């Protein structure tokens, strides 16, 4: 959404492609590829659209309103996001209803081995990595 909404607002046609993560320079899933020119990360995508297509996302805003909008965006991206991640992964009940449940449904899908201890150890290690990142929140 963070890339598609600005593209839609600016009237730039696009095709959504959920593959190609490893083609990006920053290894992030959010990027655009315009005829071989790859732009990764939502602030850079916004800047690219403003420069290339001449669209002003802040048209009509005062400098104070621009500052408030930027501050709100950064707050949501840098703080609320991590609070949500921590609540989802650190709280055992939330984890059981969310990430663990998706892993269980994948485990029951056709062709997926019924017992896969290495998979569960990897999931637990990944949860530990996420929780380690939540220590500062």
Outline type: extended
Q: Which blocks of ≥5 consecutive residues have pLDDT under 50?
A: none
Rg from C-alpha positions? Answer: 19 Å
**Structural class assignment:** mainly alpha
**Physical arrangement of strands within the biggest beta sheet:** 1-2
N-to-C order of helices and strands: HEEHHHHH
Using DSSP, what is the number of strands? 2
Q: What is the average per-residue confidence, as pLDDT, rounded to a whole number?
A: 78
How many helices does DSSP assign? 6
**How would a crystallographer describe the biggest sheet?**
2 strands, antiparallel
Helix content: 55-70%
Strand content: 5-15%
Euclidean distance between termini CA atoms: 25 Å
Explained architecture:
The chain has 137 residues and is mainly alpha-helical. Helix content is 58%, strand content 6%. The protein has 6 helices and 2 strands; from the N terminus they run H-E-E-H-H-H-H-H. The chain has helices spanning 4-10, 42-53, 63-90, 92-97, 99-107, 117-133; strands spanning 31-34, 37-40. Strands 1-2 form a two-stranded antiparallel ribbon. Strand 1 and strand 2 (37-40) form a beta hairpin. The longest helix has 28 residues, at 63-90. It is extended and about 50 Å long.
Task: Summarize the topology.
Elements: H1 4-10, E1 31-34, E2 37-40, H2 42-53, H3 63-90, H4 92-97, H5 99-107, H6 117-133
Antiparallel strand pairs: 1-2
Structure, briefly:
Helix content is 58%, strand content 6%. By secondary structure, the protein is mostly helical. A two-stranded antiparallel ribbon has the order 1-2.
């Amino acid at each position: 959404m963070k890339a598609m909404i600005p593209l839609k607002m600016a009237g730039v046609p696009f095709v959504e492609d959920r593959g190609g993560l490893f083609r990006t320079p920053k290894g992030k899933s959010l990027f655009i590829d315009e005829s071989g020119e790859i732009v990764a990360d939502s602030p850079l995508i916004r800047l690219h659209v403003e420069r290339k297509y001449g669209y002003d996302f802040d048209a009509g805003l005062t400098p104070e309103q621009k500052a408030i909008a930027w501050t709100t965006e950064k707050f949501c991206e840098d703080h609320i996001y991590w609070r949500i991640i921590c609540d989802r992964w650190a709280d055992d009940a939330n984890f059981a209803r969310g990430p663990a449940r998706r892993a269980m449904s994948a485990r029951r899908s056709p062709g997926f081995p019924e017992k896969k201890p290495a998979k569960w150890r990897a999931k637990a290690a990944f949860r530990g990595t996420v929780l380690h990142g939540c220590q500062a929140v």
